[in-house]
Amino acid sequence: MRKSENKAIERLLKYLEYVKNKKAEGQNYVFSHELADFVGVTPAQVRQDLMDFKIEGTPQKGYPVESFFDEVCSHLKCDSRTKIVLVGVGNLGKAILSYFVKRKPNLEIVAAFDSDQEKSDRIYSGTKILNVSELYNFVKKERVKVGIITTPADSAQDIADILIKAGIRGIVNFAPITIKVPESVFLEQIDITLSIEKTAYFAEKIAGEK
Amino acid sequence: MRKSENKAIERLLKYLEYVKNKKAEGQNYVFSHELADFVGVTPAQVRQDLMDFKIEGTPQKGYPVESFFDEVCSHLKCDSRTKIVLVGVGNLGKAILSYFVKRKPNLEIVAAFDSDQEKSDRIYSGTKILNVSELYNFVKKERVKVGIITTPADSAQDIADILIKAGIRGIVNFAPITIKVPESVFLEQIDITLSIEKTAYFAEKIAGEK
DNA sequence: TAGATTGTTAATCGATTAACAATC
DNA sequence: TAGATTGTTAATCGATTAACAATC
User: Fold this and answer.
1) What is the CATH number of domain A3-76?
2) Residue ranges of domains in chain B
3) Residues 136-165/A with CB < 7 A to strand C
4) In the Cβ-directed half-sphere of A25, how many Cα atoms lie within 13 Å?
5) Is B24's Cβ below 8 Å from some Cβ in A?
6) Sign (positive/negative) of CA torsion A73, A79, A85, A88?
7) Whole-angstrom Cα distance, residue B176 to residue A21?
8) Among partner residues B90, B91, B146, which is closest to A200 by beta-carbon distance?
9) Where do the H-state alpha helices sit in chain B?
10) pLDDT digit of tens for each residue in chain A (210 aa)?
11) What is the dihedral of CA B30, B31, B35, B40, to 10 degrees?
């Protein structure tokens, strides 16, 4: 993939959300500046993105909501269902599990895993929790595409290796460590603590400048 | 700030973590390629960063751990303590609260807020939970610098506005909506669901290419 | 010394923005 | 028509990488 595609897809997903709302409201057209405002970019950026994805509008009217939605959805494969597993049922893992219940119909967390025997074979927010020893076979058998890692840092790489060996295609890693994956696996790193630390740094810096 | 500083500071925080570990292990020098490997960038990038922050090394030996640590720490003001409030004590909010207990000594979540009266005046993971009606006065009086927003999307902008009016300098927003802040406030957006959706997209794409 | 690494400049690469004719 | 917006190219901007002399 183009390196740029990462951010472009992020923006596209946000555009889609806006258009989805407008569609529900019965609006027929949207302007680039509306989308720009909603997503927090320039109108020029929006037009560039939409051009890249072959979405066409007309001057003065804007972009037609109906075909915009269909076009982007077919590009993003909105109708396909993606199987996800979550590994590490701590507080963060539970927060994600509980949030996901029926919120995103095309994403399904098919199982969660934890190393703690006590947690195994229970159900949390409608998701079955299995022991991590079953992870490899489950992912392989069910052809799971995405793994979410919410374990402590020291086991994150091991879990990633198991997932990759079992055929996973994308990993979202919340553990505060840079894990290594082959080119053929998409990796998204989310380091919550790092983000808070960074914000603290800039906040203190701004405060100091006043 | 330079726009680039955002990512540079992120890398610097990671370098610091590596160096901290090495210091604890009694190692005296680190090479740029070690840091590069740990953070997931090129050695050239590391040297650029360290040059920008006036950290000097010597050929063949590398960068001295001791002065590296002191230099970066003074730049990042490691010794100063940053006051943080968290708004929205749902599952995600609780996960962050429980994680932060004593984990980061220079960051302190001084209070959490929720609109639910039932949750008020309780203590969770050592952090007092107050009603959101007290937010403005608390932030102003205590001169809190950072706000973490873990509320639903529809109240995120309102909370942000209160925080800003009360004098906050940095916001970490987990609500799935792009909030607007003035130039004088640092904003970090973390959209967990968006990241998972994006990973699902690329995972499906990679799987389709095989 | 030989070899590896630093410091630093230049080159590359790519994303974002500006600009403007065409268009409704 | 007048005015605003699109489609598209060119310009800008900035981050990352390459390259290599200096150095230990």
Assistant:
1) 1.10.10.10
2) 3-76, 82-194
3) none
4) 11
5) no
6) positive
7) 14
8) B146
9) 5-24, 32-39, 43-52, 65-76, 91-100, 135-142, 153-165, 192-209
10) 455 789 999 999 999 999 999 999 999 999 999 999 999 999 999 999 999 889 999 999 999 999 999 989 888 888 889 999 999 999 999 999 998 877 888 999 999 999 999 998 999 999 999 999 999 999 999 999 999 999 999 999 999 999 999 999 999 999 999 999 998 999 999 999 999 999 999 999 988 886
11) -160
The answer to whether the predicted template modeling score (pTM) of the entire model surpasses 0.85 is yes
Q: For A2 and C10, how far is CA from C1' in angstroms? A: 25
Q: Using one digit for the tens of pLDDT, what is the confidence trace for B113-162?
A: 999 999 989 999 999 999 999 999 999 999 999 999 999 999 999 999 99
Does at least one atom of strand D sit less than 7 Å from the CB of A64? Answer: no
Distance from the B61 Cα atom to the nearest Cα atom in chain A, whole angstroms: 25
The CATH number corresponding to B82-194 among 2.40.128.120, 3.30.870.10, 3.40.50.720, 3.40.50.1820 equals 3.40.50.720
Q: Does the distance separating the beta carbons of B188 and A9 come in below 8 Å?
A: no
For D3, which residue's CA is nearest its C1'?
A60
Question: Three-state SS across chain A?
Answer: CCCCHHHHHHHHHHHHHHHHHHHHCCCCEECHHHHHHHHCCCHHHHHHHHHHCCCCCECCCEEEHHHHHHHHHHHHCCCCCEEEEEECCCHHHHHHHHHHCCCCCCEEEEEEEECCHHHCCCEECCEEEEEHHHHHHHHHHHCCCEEEECCCHHHHHHHHHHHHHCCCCEEEECCCCCCCCCCCCEEEECCHHHHHHHHHHHHHHHHHHC
Of B14, B145, B199, the CB nearest to A188: B199
| Contacting residues 17-56/B vs strand D (CB within 7 A) | 41-42, 44-45, 47-48
DSSP state, residue B185:
S
B49 touches strand C (CB under 7 A): no
A165 touches strand D (CB under 7 A): no
Which residues in chain A are contacts of B204 at CB distance < 8 A?
A: 77, 80, 82, 145, 169
Cβ contact B76–A201 (<8 Å): yes
Measure, in angstroms, how far nucleotide D13 C1' is from residue A9 CA. Answer: 22
